[in-house]
Amino acid sequence: MATPSADSQRVFAPGIFRDQVAIITGGGSGIGLATAHELLRLGARVAICGRNAEKLEAARTELEATAAGRPDAVIARPCDIREPAQVEELVRAVIAAWGRADILVNNAGGQFPSPAQHISPNGFLAVIKNNLVGTFHMCREVANQWMIPQQGGRIVNVIANIYRGFPGMVHTGAARAGVENMTMTLAVEWAQFGILVNALAPGIIRSSGTAQYPPQILERGISETPLKRAGTVDEVAASIVFLASPAAQFITGATLRMDGGQSLWGHTWEIP
Ligand SMILES: NC(=O)c1ccc[n+]([C@@H]2O[C@H](COP(=O)([O-])OP(=O)(O)OC[C@H]3O[C@@H](n4cnc5c(N)ncnc54)[C@H](OP(=O)(O)O)[C@@H]3O)[C@@H](O)[C@H]2O)c1
After folding, report:
1. Coil, strand, or helix at residue 184?
2. Which end of the chain is less packed: N or C, by CB atoms within 10 Å?
3. Is the shortest distance between the CB of 43 and ligand 1 below 6 Å?
4. How far apart are the CA of 23 and the centre of ligand 1, in A?
5. What does 105-153 look like in DSSP terms, one character per residue?
6. What is the CATH number of domain 16-259?
C-alpha cells in the first residue's frame, strides 16, 4: 500500500490554532518535530523540549523556517521530563514568554527491545520514569500553572500499541498502559476545569525512533499490520492535531489507535 504524501493529511484550516501556545515534549525529532511543524503551520506558537541541546537547536532552525514571518513563534529549551524542577522551569519559561500554555503534547519517550528476563531493575525503572512518571510531571505542572487557573486546555499523550501486552518491551508496555489509565483519570478529574485529556496509540511508524531498532523488527511489524505499511510521522502529527483541535472538543479520556489495524491482528514481535 502506498504511503500518502504529507500534503494529503492537511485538512485543517490555516490559522485554526492562532494565538494558542503548544508545548511538545520530545519535539526535537520524529513524531514530536512533525507535530511542531504542523501546529506552527496552523498558527500556534510552539515550545519544544528534549535532553540533547544540539538536536533541539537543529530542530529550532527547521521550525523557524516553517514559522517564516512570525519571529518569536518557537522556543527550544532543554528539559529532562524525569526531573520535576526542570519541568517546572520549562513551563514557567513558556508562560513568561507567551503568557499561556493551551496545549500539551506528551510525546517524549524511549525504550529498548529486550526479553523481559534480561531487563535489569535499573533498565526497567528508567523506562517507567521516562514514559510514565515524566508524563505525569508535565501534566501536573501545565495544569497547575495555566490550565486549571485559566479553566481550559488540551493534553494529548502519545502511548503505543499495548492492546495485547507488549511482548519484547515489557517496560514500555507497562508505562504506556499506566499513561492510558492516567489519561482516563485526568479526563474525569479535570473535566470541571475544561481540560480535555486524550491519548494516541501509534502502531509502527517510520521515524527517528524506530530507525534505532533492528530493521527486521520493523519489517516483521509491517508484514503483520493489516494495512501492510508503516505509518508516517506526518500521519501521527495529523492525529495529534485533531485531538488538540476544536473538531475534538467533545472527546476526553479516549485513546485514538492509529496503527493500520495492528492492535487487532498479527504478531509484531518474534519471541526468542
Ligand atoms: N515510532 C514509532 O513507531 C512509535 C510507536 C509508538 C509510540 N512511539 C512513541 O512516540 C514518541 C515519539 O517517538 P519517535 O518515533 O518520534 O522517536 P524519537 O525521535 O526517539 O523521539 C523521542 C523524543 O523524546 C525525547 N526524549 C526522550 N526522553 C526524554 C526525556 N527524559 N526528557 C525530554 N525529552 C526526552 C528525545 O530527545 P532527547 O533524546 O534529546 O531527550 C526525542 O526527541 C516516543 O514516546 C515513542 O516511544 C513511537
Report:
1. helix
2. C
3. no
4. 14
5. EE---------GGG--HHHHHHHHIIIIIHHHHHHHHHIIIIIHHHT-E
6. 3.40.50.720
Q: How far is the CA of 50 from the centre of ligand 1 (A)?
A: 9
- The grid cell for 227 is 494495512
Strand, helix or coil for residue 48:
strand
The tens digit of pLDDT for each residue in 36-59 reads 999 999 999 999 999 999 999 999
Q: Whose CA is nearest to atom 37 of ligand 1?
A: 50
- Give per-residue pLDDT as tens, 158-214: 999 999 999 999 999 999 999 999 999 999 999 999 999 999 999 999 999 889 888
Q: Summarize pLDDT for 97-145 with one digit per residue, the tens.
A: 999 999 999 999 999 999 999 999 999 999 999 999 999 999 999 999 9
Rama region for 72: left / alpha / beta (φ>0; ψ in -120 to 50; rest): left
Say if residues 143 and 195 touch (Cβ distance below 8 Å): yes
For residue 110, report the distance from its CA to the centre of ligand 1, in Å. 5
Q: Which residue has its alpha carbon closest to ligand 1 atom 4?
A: 205
Whether ligand 1 lies within 6 angstroms of the CB of 51 is answered as yes
**Residue whose CA is closest, atom 11 of ligand 1?**
107
160 lines ligand 1 (CB under 6 A): yes
